[in-house]
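Q: You know discrete backbone vocabularies at least as well as I do. I have my own habits and do not want them to colour yours. No explanation is needed for now; the record alone will do.
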Amino acid sequence: MKYPIAHMDKIIERYGKDIGAGYDIMCEFMKTLLVSSISGKVKDSRFVGIVPAFHGHAHSRSCQVWWHPLYIEGIGLTELEDCERLFARSNELATGTRMCTPFHRRQQILEFMHFNDLDKYASHGKLLYSKYREALRIISDHSAELSVLEDRLKTTAQDYEEYLCQEREYLDSLRREPPEETQKFQYMEALDQLQKAM
């Protein structure tokens, strides 16, 4: 766990406060961060951890309501799967570099990454513009529908936030067994031990 912690330390140091990062196991990694040597820095920076959208669906519902990008304010339309796509594209290097010397293999990987950086940099403006237009389209297309539903159901945006909080509380309460269940289990164990002792 040293490498991911060091990585987060550098990210917070470089980008400062109010940032977020996606990690396939962020729900568990955040627990580690909060007891690590950089826990103070993580708390002070108001760092937000996110499980990327694709991986989020493999996690439990109680994990999703806390960590999925859909429920985190400020994430927008990103799904945080850029690294997955980069590594998928880099798999094409394997066939061409399999028979290379270690030097030439590293050289090919470096060239691939350099080209990828240039390509991403060049297309970044287009990406931001298309995401912005998509957000405007979604707002335009669905605002009327949302208003109709809010009128019919007598709900507001505050209600949706409250529903999410209630769902989080409910799912968190399911993690702990009710005391009466624990007591029943202890009673059954005691009976079992008594029967074995006879």
Q: What stands out?
A: The chain has two domains: 1-79, 81-177. Residues 1-79 form one domain. Residues 186 and 192 are 10 Å apart (CA to CA).
